[in-house]
Amino acid sequence: MSTETWMLIFSGVVAFSTLVYALLTWRLVSETRKMRELQTEPKILVTIKPQDAWINFMDILIQNVGLGTAYHIKFIIDKDFECDKGRFLSEMGFIKNGIRVLSPNQKFQCFFTSMIENYEEKNKENIEINVKYQNY
After folding, report:
1. Which is more confident, 98 or 125?
2. pTM for the predicted model, two decimal places
3. Calpha distance 84→95 (Å, rounded)
4. Which residue from 27, 64, 99, 104 lies 20 to 30 Å from 10 (Cα-Cα)?
5. What is the enclosing helix (H) or strand (E) of 47?
6. Mind giving me the DSSP string for 63-102?
């Protein structure tokens, strides 16, 4: 084989290798971008849990379990829940007005309901809360 043929084969191998490295670099940049976004995303979790002192008293706990700060948090109640006689979930201050800011690992907890009264009815109810927030 002549020198020109070897140079042509070598150039082809180098061009192919460059293309492969460019594709691998693009995938690495894409994965890095996704990881960075996940590391700065807030994630709001709403749970109902018994109080530590009284197991029959339930608290509602709003917690940012993500790594980013959540702003302008709004709660949408799909099916309202009567916490106590004449007091509904949708009328609670933070549900009605929202929460301005919730930092990573920050919690907001308040009294929700007493399970002493109407236990059977309350236990059968499903509570659906949609949470909307912004991430800057």
Report:
1. 98
2. 0.69
3. 16
4. 27
5. strand 44-50
6. EE-SSS-EEEEEEEEEE--EEETTEEGGGSHHHHH-EEEE
